[in-house]
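Standup notes
- DV: blocked on the single-chain target, sequence here:
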Amino acid sequence: MLTAAEVDQLHDDVVSWFEENARDLPWRRDTSGWSVLVSELMLQQTPVVRVLPVYAAWMARWPTPADLAAEPVGEAVRAWGRLGYPRRAQRLHAAATAIVTDHGGQVPSDHATLLTLPGVGEYTAAAVASFAFAGRHAVMDTNVRRVLTRVVEGRQYPAASITAAERRLAHDLLPHDDAHRWAAATMELGAVVCTAKAPRCDACPVRDLCRWRALGYPEHDGPARKGQAWAGTDRMVRGRLLAVLRESDGPVEKARLDTAWDEDDQRERCLDSLLDDGLVTLLDDGRFAL
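- DV (later): unblocked, structure below
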């Protein structure tokens, strides 16, 4: 563990680096609760470059939770486009509805209340409470976890899931003042410098404090890290079915959906799962719609 003086240096160096090098992202300019909530749900397992145009269009169309809640959930799914994991659009619509119904149209500021919103878990609640309301929370996304694991523990990668010890470490390292800046700074450092596959250690503001570097960059010795498959998966087929519906002017015939994928059993299974999830609706006339 770092000494108290080293922790202070870590805070100062990372936050100073962030203030000089942070990317100009729209949710860092508009730090309202709604802006941050939308961005955080969109950014889950999705690169920033893909999120930017969808976020801009979304906020232009639905600048408040009430604007989104007033429209059918199918419109949220349609606007989600090709971001993937479209149930996030459903959850964001449900959260907007709850915000309007239960919170006067204002995104709650406290962590505990944020956790009661549909689709908002521990990480998202901490991120919104921190970035929108300057709360003091450990915001533990993949990038933050990787930075802390390397700098403090000297390992290449964190565990597959957050451990109790890892959570304690993150809380112990929270500065008493401006913890939200520390959260944003460590997240940015992991995203653009301390990356998973090609870390740019020469550009790291805390390379002299980094235990992983001091140990000679030992390689990961835990369970093999698995990449996410895509081609031919049910997730891909679901995406193709949704694309047909998004790009249509209205409900479509079943025959139109059949063109999305030529393996009948898999296509039908994926369509059934979309119906079960509520992402697709079967109309009385036998056509399908978002």
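- Follow-up: The chain has three domains: 32-131, 138-214, 234-289.
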